[in-house]
Every structure is written in structure tokens, then in C-alpha cells.
């Protein structure tokens, strides 16, 4: 039996990717880690904690789910208070009363009375850092819970947790990044069901990897791209322009090359809200205000080695300046930008208060 | 007679599974002193009688259950959930505490004492071993831990809970911490002729001293001084200045008895602790019928302990933190790799455990990031070279752009849109290679937000030069 707790506000929406079918079936270069985790399961309660870490998309969550089951998993999201960690109601689990305690002392007492030791997995453990109650850090207290083995899953090394639990040694279980070959094996499993020619699909996987390996190491993103672009790759075949034969791969590559370029940029695009746009224009002016005030107009673009003294003002970004100054510049540039000017004037008066 | 605490402790015969001895607050009350002393000699005998075991008939190779049982037995000792038979260096402390405890438990005198020593020097072990020497029905033990009881109210609530007196408290409705505690102690002894001593064990004593007004400590020490009911307060702390943390009124009520515990002084003492933990004895560890396996296991463990590699690691720990748990952590990690195919603790396994536990993972993390992110880090290094600290994305991107312009041919693969580069910058932030500095303000546009780097110039150089995937031009740029 395994303890089920939800740390904080588990955001179902943002975690859909994590709730998918585990990516690990059988061999995928994770045998050692899996056997270590199974041993943690066997020694539950005797080991205070294990620390599972590694870069993003290396199968950490999938592995702990496989070994400890979904029910053991807690996802730490968002900033939260210590006491909120143990408060989240989750129906249908008879073990819930155990963690319904609002304080650590009750939790520790309840854990002491457990008949069988439990494993609790904290996914996204980075978020637990800095949580404290009365100057006692949550992480160091969790490490002491009797009869409970805490498994922390994080993308950062334990060093970054040191401030929270400086006196503890962790059992590290490292998930190294997938190698080129391992990535290929995993991508191979994603082959669409309606695709009968595996060799054809694999050629596309090779192509994707060779194009994107430089820019993108994240397995999740690679899988997404492969799923997204494979139909485009297949298009010429469907239309009868080429065949699936290896001879035509050059043609197919030419056809799909444009999409690759598109997708790299699209993958990274961050939607910017309109409020950020106004912020951007204001920051432009504020930059100007600052530069203008300090009379550092001579921003000659020199190709010589830059020193800190010569660092261009645009690069450094805006610094504090009198807001009246910016207002004056606004008036100067544009005379009837009434809405912006109103806003700024109200800001000035607000600040004066 | 049966006291409420006794029932509490007996229900938790499964000892506490934390790695720390200090936090293990229940007592193995089914282990009588005689069996404990019998256990003392067992592991040694098993390791010495290697030669005699050859007369045994050939046994089956260890299967999964056997290996798991062996691992669990060893881990139980490493985690400190079973009391060790030998406690080198702690016998003095145990003797002292035993005298004090005897005065309290046998002669019904009140007392207070503080155990001070560096972490994992055996403070909790001293308390547990001492209390285990007295009959469990002659006193009531209440265990508190500063890490869990973050306020006096919580602590009192837990005391009531551990004494199973919730119902009596409901009727009395005490208004303050001290009132409640006094009520508890009085009620506890109201029914019986003789007074039952109550032993309060306060782990992380210094954290209790940080509670506002120190009312819990004040009341406990006050009861110990004035009450007729015997109360024995044992505090355990790593802070040498724990007493100085106490308020004047609390300090004056404390007995000022302090027992110091010391970590093992040299590698030999250190190794005794390790050897006791990692050698198997068929009888004690429930491995009867697998004597051959135990013998072979102990033989390999001995040769591991005799190796120069182990000795150098042990020497390092003794010279450094002198924390025996650091070594225990290495063995725990090695236990996780035990399997029927690899059922012994071997030198190779130990070396592997050292690599995975002690080595900094920064290099692995660096090798796993994309070339663009690596190039950005070199750009950050250029900032550091020119004493531009802190830096922001725009500055780093500017350096990167110059670099790409200069190496247009070879570095075409790294030319991306600004958004893409910014994403790489953000992923560096997510991996905490760089952290934003406070004070630049949240309203600052994110491209101008100031950052500091968590690596030194030399670190970045080493990482880049030793990374095989890193393009040559980037390496050259790093050296310029």
C-alpha cells in the first residue's frame, strides 16, 4: 500500500503530459535505475529518502510511476505553504486521513503508527525548496518522517537543496540524458499504427534527429516534432509524387525541409500578451529617458572588445530614473498619445502619494 | 501496571526508518539487555570463522529473497533502526546518562541533562541505549523533535497524544502551555501510589529554544525543579551554544549538566562501526540455511574494508566531516544494486557507489544540454572575463551574435532567432546554471533582467574543453 498525497494545488491541466502512459516499457537504457528503485521499494521505511534526478525528459517520472505506482506520486506545483501540503482533499483513498493533518507533528505521529512502511514520491521536488514553518525547513522534516521513505524527483542536483537540508546525505539515483541511439529506439516505438513500412519511418526519424540534434535534446519535443512532421513527410508519397523507396529520400527531404525550418522557430515561440507589448514600448521610452538623462548618447557600435565601461545602454536595460523625465519625452515624441500619457500621469500622481 | 506510553511504543515495533539515528525515537523494547549483548559478538564471530565454514554441505546460490533479506538486515543497521551492539567511544556518555537516568527512574528524582555533539556522533544512540537498559514499565518516555514540533502548542498537543490523555484534557480545557503540562503530569500520577517518572526526550533541542518565550522549555524545567513528580528532561543538540540560547529564567532552572559525544577519532574506530554494520550473521539476521552465503558475503566485505580505496575514502571522511553517515550512505547506495547476480558487497560496487554519490553531476548536466545552451554559457564566460557582473540576456546575446558573425561558416548551425536563443537562456535558468539576482525588479523586461552565474570562469572552461560534442570554434572562443 502506498500513501497518496497531493502536494499543494495539483494542476491537472499543466500535468497532462506527465499523466500519459509511461514511456518506459522494457529496455530503454534505464534498467539499472529501475532495479535501484525496486530495491528502494523493498527497503521502504529503512531508507530515509532517495533522490532521483536528471535532465528533463529522461524518464524519471515514468520510472517512479512504474515502480511505485501512480498512487504514490505527488506533484508539487506552484508556491505553497507548508501546511497546505497536507491539506488537499482527495476522495476515494482510505489512507487519506493519514495526511489530512495540518501540521508535521500530527503527520509524524500518524506515520509512526503505520503498520507497513510507505513510499511517497514528490515529483517536481524543486518547488519544495524554501518552504518553512517557524524556520524549520519542510524538506529536512520530511526526511525524518518515521516509516516513510521519501523519493524526490527533480531536474536539479541535490546541491541545490542543500540550504533546505544541509545535514543530510542523499542516495542519488541519476538519470543520465539519452544518447543518440537510445533516443532513436524510443522514437521508433512512436511509429504510427497505420504505417506499415517501419524502415521508411526510421529514415524519417534519422533525418529528424540529424537536423534537430543540435538545437533540441528534449525527448518530449523531439517526439512532438516527429509526430507533427511525419504526415508532411508522407504527403508526397500519398500524392504519388515519390515512393517510399530509399532512392527517393533526397526528394522527400527537399519537400520537408521547409517545415523543419518552420517548426524549429515555432517550437520556441512564446505567445506575448498585449500587456507585455505595452510594457515593451514603455520600456523603450524608459531606456531612452535613462540614456538621455545621463547624456550617454554616444553609443558608437564598436567592433572592438567590449569592456564594462563601454557597454551599450540598450543592452543593460532600463535603470531607475525620474518618471517626470519619461513623461517629458512622451510629450515630446507624440503629442496626442492621450491614453498612454494619462496612464503615466496617474502613475506619477500615484507615486507621489 | 501498564502505562499508556508503553502501549504506544510496543505498537511500533517496526523501528523508524529514517537514516538518522537521532530521529529514531522508539525503542526496541523487545530486545532485552542480554540479547543485545549477545548480538554484540555475533557479527565478529561470523567474520572470524571463515575457515570453519568449509565443512558445511554445498548450499543453493542466493536467490532474490535471500539477497533482499541480507540487504534489509544491513540497511536496518545502517539506518540505526536496530541498536548496535558495540558503540566505540560512546560508553562513557552512556554510563553518565545511565547514572542520571537511574537517579530519576529508580530513585524518583527530577533532573535535566543536555547531550551535545556533532551530527551523527551518536546522541540519540546514547539515549536509546540508556533507556533500553531500564525496564519499560518503570517509566514513560515522551519523544519530541524540534523539526516536527515547530511550536509549543504543537509539542504539547503531541505530548498529550503520546500519553493518550486527549479525553482528560478535553474536560480540563487548560488555557496555556504550562497549565496543560502541569495538568498532564499531575493526572498521570493521581491514580497510583508511587510516582511514575516521565522521561522527555527533546531532539533538536536548539530548535525548541527558538520558540517564542520558550514556554515549553520553561515549564518542563520548572516542573523538574519544583514538582514532586519525577521528570527527566533529556535534550539533544548539535549546537555547542545551545545553553546560551536559553532565556535567563529558563537557564536558571536548567541543571547545567551536559554530556558531550564525540565522533570516531580515527579510521580504525570508524571502520569498527562500518564493519559491525555490513557484516552478516546468519542467526541474528534471519539467514539460517544460508551460512555459506553469509560467510562469502563477510569475506568479501572484509576484503573491501581492507582495500586501500576504502581506506582513502574513510580517511577523507574522518579528516573532513567525520560523519559516519556519509560512509553509510555509500553502502546504502551499494545495497540498492544488490541482486541475485551480484549478491555481494564488492570493491567494484563500492567504487561505483562512490562515483554516483560523491561526484558532482554538473558535468553530466553540461554534456546533456544542447550546443546552443553551451555556446550561451561561453558567452556568459565572456561577460565574466570583462567583469560584466551581473549580466542580462541582451548582453550575452550580443556576445553570441559577434561570435557567430566572426565564425559565419563553421557556426551556421547555431544561428537561431532571438526567441530561440532566449529559450535556451531560460533553460539555463531552469537548470540553475544562472540565477536571477534580486533587486532588479519584477517589472523589468525579461530580456533585461539581471542574472548571476553559479559557476566560475574556470569551471566553464573545464566543462567546455572536456565536452566531446562541443564544436571546436566554441572551444576556441572559450579560450580567447
From TrEMBL, chain A:
GO molecular function: DNA replication origin binding
Domain ORC5 lid: 201-251
GO biological process, one term: DNA replication initiation
Keyword field contains 4Fe-4S: no
Statement: the UniProt record of this protein carries the keyword Nucleus: yes
Chain ranges of the Origin recognition complex subunit 5 C-terminal domain: 286-341
GO cellular component: nuclear origin of replication recognition complex
Keywords in alphabetical order: DNA replication, Nucleus
Name of protein: Uncharacterized protein
Annotated organism of origin: Rhizoclosmatium globosum
UniProtKB/TrEMBL annotation, chain B:
Alphabetized CDD domains for the sequence: AAA (cd00009)
Region (Disordered): 1-69
SUPFAM superfamilies: P-loop containing nucleoside triphosphate hydrolases (SSF52540)
GO BP terms in the entry: DNA replication initiation
Keyword match DNA-binding: yes
UniProt-annotated location(s): Nucleus
Residue ranges with Polar residues bias: 48-67
Protein name, entry field: Origin recognition complex subunit 4
Stored InterPro entries: AAA+_ATPase (IPR003593), AAA_22 (IPR049945), ORC4 (IPR016527), ORC4_C (IPR032705), P-loop_NTPase (IPR027417)
Function: Component of the origin recognition complex (ORC) that binds origins of replication.
GO CC terms, sorted: nuclear origin of replication recognition complex
Occurrences of domain AAA+ ATPase (ranges): 109-264
Superkingdom of origin organism: Eukaryota
GO MF annotation, one: ATP hydrolysis activity
UniProt keywords, alphabetically: DNA replication, DNA-binding, Nucleus
Any one Pfam family match given in the protein's UniProt record, by short name: AAA_22
Amino acid at each position: 500500500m502506498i500513501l497518496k498525497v497531493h502536494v499543494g494545488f495539483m494542476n491537472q491541466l499543466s500535468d497532462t503530459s506527465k499523466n500519459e502512459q509511461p514511456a518506459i516499457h522494457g529496455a530503454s537504457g534505464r534498467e539499472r535505475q529501475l532495479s535501484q528503485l525496486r530495491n528502494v521499494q523493498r527497503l521502504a521505511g529503512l531508507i530515509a529518502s532517495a533522490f532521483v534526478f536528471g535532465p528533463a525528459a529522461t524518464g524519471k517520472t515514468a520510472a517512479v510511476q512504474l515502480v511505485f505506482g501512480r498512487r504514490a506520486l505527488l506533484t508539487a506545483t506552484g508556491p505553497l505553504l507548508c501546511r497546505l501540503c497536507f491539506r488537499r482533499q482527495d476522495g476515494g483513498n482510505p489512507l487519506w486521513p493519514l495526511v489530512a493533518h495540518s501540521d508535521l507533528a500530527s503527520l509524524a505521529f500518524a506515520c509512526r503508527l503505520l503498520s507497513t512502511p510507505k513510499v511517497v514520491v514528490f515529483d517536481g521536488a524543486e518547488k519544495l525548496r524554501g518552504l518553512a514553518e517557524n524556520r524549520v525547513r519542510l524538506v529536512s522534516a520530511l526526511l525524518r518522517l518515521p516509516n516513510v521513505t521519501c523519493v524526490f524527483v527533480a531536474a536539479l542536483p541535490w546541491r541545490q537543496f542543500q540550504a533546505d537540508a544541509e545535514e543530510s546525505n542523499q542516495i542519488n539515483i541519476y538519470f543520465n540524458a539519452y544518447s543518440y541511439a537510445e533516443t532513436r529506439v524510443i522514437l521508433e516505438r512512436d511509429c504510427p499504427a497505420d504505417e506499415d513500412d517501419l524502415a521508411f519511418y526510421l529514415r524519417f526519424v534519422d533525418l529528424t534527429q540529424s537536423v534537430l540534434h543540435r538545437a533540441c535534446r528534449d525527448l518530449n519535443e523531439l517526439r512532438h516534432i516527429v509526430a507533427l512532421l511525419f504526415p508532411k513527410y508522407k504527403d508526397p508519397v500519398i500524392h504519388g509524387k515519390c515512393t517510399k523507396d530509399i532512392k527517393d529520400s533526397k526528394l522527400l527531404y527537399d519537400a520537408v525541409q521547409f517545415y523543419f525550418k518552420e517548426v524549429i522557430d515555432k517550437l520556441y515561440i512564446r505567445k506575448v500578451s498585449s500587456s507585455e507589448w505595452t510594457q515593451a514600448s514603455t520600456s523603450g521610452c524608459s531606456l531612452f529617458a535613462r540614456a538621455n538623462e545621463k547624456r550617454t548618447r554616444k553609443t558608437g557600435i564598436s567592433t572592438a572588445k567590449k569592456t564594462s565601461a563601454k557597454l551599450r545602454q540598450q543592452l543593460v536595460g532600463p535603470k531607475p530614473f525620474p518618471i517626470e523625465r519619461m513623461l517629458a519625452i512622451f510629450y515630446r515624441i507624440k503629442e496626442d498619445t492621450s491614453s498612454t500619457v494619462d496612464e503615466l500621469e496617474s502613475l506619477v500622481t500615484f507615486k507621489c502619494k | 501496571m501498564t502505562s499508556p506510553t508503553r502501549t504506544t511504543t510496543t505498537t511500533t515495533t517496526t523501528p523508524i526508518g529514517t537514516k538518522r539515528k537521532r530521529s529514531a525515537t522508539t525503542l526496541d523494547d523487545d530486545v532485552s539487555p542480554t540479547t543485545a549483548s549477545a548480538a554484540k559478538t555475533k557479527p565478529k564471530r561470523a567474520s572470524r570463522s571463515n575457515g570453519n565454514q568449509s565443512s558445511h554441505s554445498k548450499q543453493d546460490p542466493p536467490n532474490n529473497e535471500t539477497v533482499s533479506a541480507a540487504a534489509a538486515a544491513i540497511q536496518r543497521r545502517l539506518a540505526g533502526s536496530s541498536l548496535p551492539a558495540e558503540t566505540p567511544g560512546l560508553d562513557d556518555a552512556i554510563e553518565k546518562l545511565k547514572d542520571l537516568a537511574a537517579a530519576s527512574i529508580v530513585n524518583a528524582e527530577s533532573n535535566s541533562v543536555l547531550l551535545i555533539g556533532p551530527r551523527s556522533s551518536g546522541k540519540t544512540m546514547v539515549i536509546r541505549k540508556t533507556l533500553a537498559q531500564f525496564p519499560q514499565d518503570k517509566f514513560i518516555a515522551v519523544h519530541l523533535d524540534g523539526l516536527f514540533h515547530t511550536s509549543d502548542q504543537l509539542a504539547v498537543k503531541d505530548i498529550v497524544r503520546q500519553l493518550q490523555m486527549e479525553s482528560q484534557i478535553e474536560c480540563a480545557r487548560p488555557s496555556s502551555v504550562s497549565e496543560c503540562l502541569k495538568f498532564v503530569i499531575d493526572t498521570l500520577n493521581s491514580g497510583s501510589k508511587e510516582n511514575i517518572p516521565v522521561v522527555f526526550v527533546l531532539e533538536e533541542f536548539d530548535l525548541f529554544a527558538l520558540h517564542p518565550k520558550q514556554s515549553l522549555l520553561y515549564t518542563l524545567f520548572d516542573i523538574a525543579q519544583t514538582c514532586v513528580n519525577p521528570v527527566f528532561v533529556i535534550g539533544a543538540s548539535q549546537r555547542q551554544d545551545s545553553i546560551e540560547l536559553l532565556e535567563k529564567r529558563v537557564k536558571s532552572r536548567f541543571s547545567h549538566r551536559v554530556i558531550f559525544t564525540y565522533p570516531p577519532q580515527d579510521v580504525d574506530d570508524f571502520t569498527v562501526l562500518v564493519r559491525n554494520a555490513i557484516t552478516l550473521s546468519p542467526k541474528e539476521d534471519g539467514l539460517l540455511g544460508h551460512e555459506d552465503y553469509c560467510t562469502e558475503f563477510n569475506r568479501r566485505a572484509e576484503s573491501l574494508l581492507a582495500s586501500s580505496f576504502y581506506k582513502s575514502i574513510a580517511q577523507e571522511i574522518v579528516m573532513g566531516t567525520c560523519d559516519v553517515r556519509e560512509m553509510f550512505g555509500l553502502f546504502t547506495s551499494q545495497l540498492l544494486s544488490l541482486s541475485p547476480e551480484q549478491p555481494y558487497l564488492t570493491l567494484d560496487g563500492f567504487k561505483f557507489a562512490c562515483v554516483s554519490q560523491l561526484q558532482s553531476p554538473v558535468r553530466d548536466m553540461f554534456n546533456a544540454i544542447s550546443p546552443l545552451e553551451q555556446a550561451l554559457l561561453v558567452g556568459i564566460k565572456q561577460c565574466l572575463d570583462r567583469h560584466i557582473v551581473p549580466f542580462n540576456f541582451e548582453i550575452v546575446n550580443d556576445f553570441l551574435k559577434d561570435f557567430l558573425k566572426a565564425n559565419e561558416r563553421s557556426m551556421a548551425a547555431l544561428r537561431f532567432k532571438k526567441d530561440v536563443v532566449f529559450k535556451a537562456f531560460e533553460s539555463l535558468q531552469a537548470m540553475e546554471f544562472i540565477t536571477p539576482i534580486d533587486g532588479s525588479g519584477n517589472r523589468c523586461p525579461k530580456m533585461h533582467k539581471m542574472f548571476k552565474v553559479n559557476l566560475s570562469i574556470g569551471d566553464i572552461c573545464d566543462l567546455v574543453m572536456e565536452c566531446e560534442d562541443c564544436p571546436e570554434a566554441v572551444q576556441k572562443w572559450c579560450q580567447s
